[in-house]
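Hi again,

Forgot to attach this to my earlier email, sorry! This is the prediction with flavin-adenine dinucleotide bound. I've pasted everything inline since the attachment limit keeps bouncing my files.
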Amino acid sequence: MTNISRRGILKGTLTAAAGIGALSVLPGMTADADAQVQKDASYDLIIVGCGCAGMVCAIRASELGLRPVIIEKMPSPSGNTVYSGGILLGVNTKAQTEQNKNTSDTVDKFYEDLMIVSQQRGDKVMTRYFAEHCSEALNWLSDSIGIKWMNIVTEVFPAYERSHVVDGPSKPSGSQLAKQLMQAVNDRRIPVLFNTKVVALAGTESLEVTGVKTVSKEGTKSFIARYGVVISTGGFHANNEMVTSQMGGWAANMPIRGSKIISGENFTLTRPFFPKFVNTDQFHAGPIHGPTGANPSIMVNYGILVTGDGVRYIDEVNTYVRVAKETAKTVKGNWAFIIMDSEPRGISTVEERFARYSRAKAPIYEGASIKELAAKANINATNLEKTVSEYNKAVKNKTAERLTPPNTLSAPRSVVKGPFYAIPFQGGMTATFGGPLVNVKTQVINTENQPIEGLYAIGNSVGGIFYDDYIVGAQLTSAAVFGRVCAEEIAKKRG
Ligand SMILES: Cc1cc2nc3c(=O)[nH]c(=O)nc-3n(C[C@H](O)[C@H](O)[C@H](O)COP(=O)(O)OP(=O)(O)OC[C@H]3O[C@@H](n4cnc5c(N)ncnc54)[C@H](O)[C@@H]3O)c2cc1C
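Structure tokens for the complex follow:
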């Protein structure tokens, strides 16, 4: 780390570029690389990563008259945003008012729901701010970016009509969100350096962050940030080594449900500045057919869940997050099956998921009898017949909660009406929840509980808000809420 003071940079009394050039980042960095620094640019804020959080921050900063740059290691936005369902959550947004939805909903109720899902372990101040400002962020996405929403739908939990799904031709809807944010970035002429990886942060001896060092095909460069560097790199779910050390090998072997290049730069870049890392063992998971990427989602609640040995292994009341984690952790080879009959066919969620499996060319096995189904799906037939028969008897006698394991769904579905289906799935990894702790101003907090001057983090790179699980839609919403906050806080520094 170099000894350049922020004041020195701002006044231009130091050749800041030379200072950053002295930063020893990669082994073998040559004098030529340092000379290159002289030509490099400075910006008001440098945003590392071009996902929902980074783009929202850049657009808001530009609206506030700041000069941001986004640096992205891939040729286009390539993080979880483009793989996401494009669902965001709001309480009494303009869109909800227009659609006459949920006028009885309140910020307090939303806050409580968020805390229930994080098992009361989410940062209370951040969560409260999130609940209070989500609607402002969603309204801004409509008004400033031109995002249109489909019909607002009810989330599985807590069954309020808060789910705003981005509308438009690109599927999944998260890619539509990314497309429109990218368009807004381009319309505002915000520079984006693609194919450029940030490999280190630059800073002073007193641990203020002052810029970044990048690597691209053109070589290495350094950039000065007048007011701040913003980490919006996502988490570390695709970093096998980090997942193994934080959660264990069972988690590292889960197929990845989203981006395969999100590899933990929220840790590696910030570590030299001694941030406080929190919730590092926490992550989100979901069911997936690994080889094809087909996602059965809440179909796991529509039948019984069995292993290849034909036995139930979990209470089907569990959310798909818990089902995915348990499947990966306890079921041989991380392969299980949803066994259901034809009764739920016709329900839109079920048909949508059957169609997804078909489009992805993922198998759904079908049999006129349980025996035939077991043979087709290569499940132990004797055990499966016994499992289904015992389960149906329990459902009929209303004793399903006494099965081992119990089924505590309030209205468990019996498996009696052929044809029968076996839908294979694995527990898949969605994203990690750990990272540098931030305060409500999005400043990264160090191990002495002080903000690190010049260092901000937003989106999925951050630790603190999410723990164990989230209400579907909360992560993109958080990226939008705190992406805006970050730009606004940095604008305050300019005065
Ligand atoms: C299948 C799936 C469905 C989902 N559905 C939803 C949903 O409907 N609603 C919801 O709220 N959440 C959803 N999520 C979660 C949500 O997608 C993420 O939380 C959110 O997109 C994170 O946005 P982000 O901007 O923080 O990071 P990302 O979108 O992951 O972007 C990070 C960017 O940083 C870049 N980067 C990383 N390191 C560097 C570096 N060193 N230098 C330069 N660039 C770098 C990456 O290439 C990437 O483009 C879903 C996730 C998945 C996987």
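DSSP finds 16 helices and 17 strands in the chain. The two ends are 28 Å apart (CA to CA).

That should be everything now.

G.
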